[in-house]
Amino acid sequence: MTLKTPPGRIAYVNARLLDPATGLDAMGGVLTDGEFIADAGAGLFDGQIPEDATLIDCHGKCLSPGLVDMRIQISGRDFENVGASAVAGGVTTAVCLPSTTPIIDDRAVVEFVARAARKAGLVKVYPYGALTKGLQGEELAEMGLLAESGAVAFTDAVNAVANARTMAQALSYAATFGLMLVQHPEEPSLAEEGAMNEGETATRLGLTGIPKEAELIIIERDLRLAQMTGGRLHFAHVSTGESLDLIRAAKDRGVSVTCDTAPPYFALNETAVGDYRTFAKLSPPLRAEADREAIVQGLQDGTIDAIASDHTPKSEDMKRLPFADAADGGLGMETLLATTLELVHNGHLNLLEALGLITQHPADLLGLPAGRLKGGAAADLIVFDPDRGWKVSAGELRSKAKNTPFDGRPMQGRVLKTVIDGRLVFDLDA
Amino acid sequence: MLAWGRRRAYSAAMSKTPFDSSVFPQRHLLGIEGLSPLDISLLLDRADEYVELNRSVGGKLDTLAGRTVINLFFESSTRTRTSFELAGKRLGSDVINMSVSTSSIKKGETLIDTAMTLNAMHPDVLVVRHGSSGAVKLLSEKVNCAVVNAGDGRHEHPTQALLDALTIRRRKGHLDGLQVAICGDILHSRVARSNIHLLNTMGARVRLIAPKTLLPAEAERLGAEVFHDMKAGLKDCDIVMMLRLQTERMKTNFFPTVREYYHFFGLDYAKLEAAKSDALIMHPGPMNRGVEIASDVADDIGRSAIREQVEMGVAVRMACLEVLTLNLEHESVA
User: Fold this and answer.
1) Which residue positions in chain B have pLDDT lower than 70?
2) How far does the CA of residue A217 sit from the closest CA of chain B (Å)?
3) Which residue, A222, A320, B23, B150, is the most exposed by fewest CB within 10 angstroms?
4) Which residues pair with A411 in a beta bridge?
5) ipTM over 0.95
6) How far is B267 from chain A (nearest CA, A)?
């Protein structure tokens, strides 16, 4: 790594600039100076590129802010592995769940995570803080202190806060400091022993189903609690159409609520489980086709505020098991851009709308200094080709774990270069 | 001398039957779903012949001489394991029983490890039972031999459905057009799923009768009419299949008490009246007498085919082992 070398001035020329925050979509250039963007715009280098700048010709491809991934899991403390996946997927800022080892429920751990992530270099990692101590759903974690140390929002990761009173108190207390809570919406007793979406496929395969009501019940409950307490609430990876109906209605009546989804929920449905494919075992489970269509609709009408990759590395040992015993979760960062661009290629969103969901929107939700293409912003950029075809092959992913639910899927759109703090950290064709 | 003579007669009788197993297109028998009516008929026809032979002469065949069948049971079982063991031995193969629940799994060995270990011993057929749906399929992907599913979780139990079908066919002469009621704990039952697939494939009509808590979601989508009342569901049925209440798989509150369950869903003569007068009563065993079935109904010689089912089990498993092993031969020749 050449991380310690000052990056100097670099001129990116002949690029299609895309900045969802300003609506910019034009041919132009970007000049970075050190770790920041010096200038960006349509007519930037008309005729005169600064003599001391290194030149990078983008050959007419797209240049946008680096991706902001608001939900990843780091297995144990494997920050280096996460960085390799992230930059290959164009992710320059990632927010990790507090379910690391150790759990992020103490301010010392927040600092530890920040240090470990900085040391590993590559992607910028921000931590969520635990909502309750040990993610146990009982005693509140020190949210105020954790926030002071750098936790960007609070969640019990893959556990829902099951107790209504605890959730009400958490929302109320967090509102004191203007902090946001992120809920994994799944009523645990209804999801117990469940392995996939409840319905015909689960019945055929003889697997215990998780009804969509497990998600709906928590969403309905927490919307009431958010309204009652005035707390700021965000639902992670929403997976059913009816969830969106509830959230849409709550937004209309002024509840302070937002939500995200993950690519599996708009690109796949429960049939991906097929013959017990454990790579398609996710939490929440892949739902019916009608739900997938409703999620696409929710992305179009703005009910869904962001897309997160839900990147969850799981080793082969945890996946090569009978379906019910296999771990939940799939990789996501290396396929985040391509799966999101499917929404563009299929005519559901335009390019700027799609990019906004994985750059500006998540950055704004969490108050992160990221997702902007303008002078003064961090020089976190990607160059990508929205049309380049490739096929996902689990074995070729940078991640050590290979559990992608998209294995074998043909994709259109690929990250060519990733730049973080002015340094080129990934170059596909190099 | 006598034994030798019997064996000669047995072998001669079998060799008269023209039989071409190459028409059975499956490498493994993992489930009924996906089998064609032709596949099913082939197995039933062959099993039918074995029933007669098992009755008329004793001794062993040498069809599978030199072959090794391993019974790999991750869940305890007496009936099914014994039935497969007898089937393998009657065909002349070596049969080894392994109960894994009591050995390696407790030492932390995974399913895949166990499969690889056994595969290295070059068996010809693995007969596998496992408590987790899909586990037998997963194991079949890691071995070179033929795999027979002897029950995986709530998913399938194909040889049970085949022996049920053989029992029905021998009593009623056919399967198509029959009205079959499957009653009781459908939710936890792999027997029910395999039977629904088989009966539908062969043109019978299936009803499911159970309290809502013991029915899986969208059960009707498997091709069955759903009832919650025994008398209504049993009306004009030709076959009444009772299922064992699998209390070992239940935590709580699927029904309030056994007394209440028996009152509404236990098969007694009063409820049986709704079915056809010659309706056949079946149960895959082991029975919970006084829970899902009254003792006098279970033991009714005129109506109950429960003991016959056990006999058919050996014949059906002989047919399955033979067909899959002959497939291996074709494979090694090709």
Assistant:
1) 1-22, 57-59, 101-108, 330-334
2) 19
3) B23
4) A390
5) no
6) 25
